Amino acid sequence: MTDVFSPQKRSAVMRRVKGKDTSPELAVRKALTRLGAGYRLHRKNLPGNPDIVLPGRRLALFVHGCFWHGHDCARGARVPKQNRDYWVGKVDRNRARDARSSDALTALGWRVETIWECDLKDAVAFEARLRSLLTSADRL
Question: What's the pTM?
Answer without folding.
Answer: 0.84
